[in-house]
UniProtKB/TrEMBL annotation:
This is Co-chaperonin GroES. It comes from Candidatus Nealsonbacteria bacterium CG23_combo_of_CG06-09_8_20_14_all_36_12. Transmembrane segments: none annotated. Belongs to the GroES chaperonin family. The lineage of its organism: Bacteria, Candidatus Nealsoniibacteriota. InterPro entries: Chaperonin_GroES, Chaperonin_GroES_sf, GroES-like_sf. NCBIfam families: PRK00364.2-2 (NF001531), PRK00364.2-4 (NF001533). It is found in: Cytoplasm. Together with the chaperonin GroEL, plays an essential role in assisting protein folding. The GroEL-GroES system forms a nano-cage that allows encapsulation of the non-native substrate proteins and provides a physical environment optimized to promote and accelerate protein folding. GroES binds to the apical surface of the GroEL ring, thereby capping the opening of the GroEL channel. PANTHER family: 10 KDA HEAT SHOCK PROTEIN, CO-CHAPERONIN GROES. SUPFAM superfamilies: GroES-like.
């Protein structure tokens, strides 16, 4: 199934980093963790629609690695894969 975001929405696959304590113990995915703040852009909408009907294109593109606000994006699950859907205003930076 393909997901196509609308307006200025962005589909993000969160990047899960392996966490390790200071003493070197690796924490499993089942451990209590905070929500990720970094991910890969999977799909983008056409942009923000102005009152005159024109669209302002988004600055992020598919494949970009982005930093986003921790609790801004909404979580969605498609099949076994979890994604985040964010508005462009929730994106803080593009990592290069």
């Amino acid at each position: 199934m393909k997901i196509k975001p609308l307006s200025d929405h962005i589909l993000i696959e969160p990047m899960k980093k392996e966490e390790q304590t200071k003493s070197g113990i690796l924490l499993p995915d089942t451990a209590e963790k905070e929500r990720p703040e970094q991910g890969r852009v999977i799909a983008v909408g056409p942009g923000r629609k102005l009152r005159n009907g024109k669209f302002i294109p988004l600055e992020v593109k598919e494949g970009n690695i982005v930093l986003f606000t921790k609790y801004g994006p909404n979580e969605v699950k498609v099949g076994d894969t979890e994604y985040l859907i964010a508005r462009e205003e929730d994106i803080l930076a593009i990592l290069e």
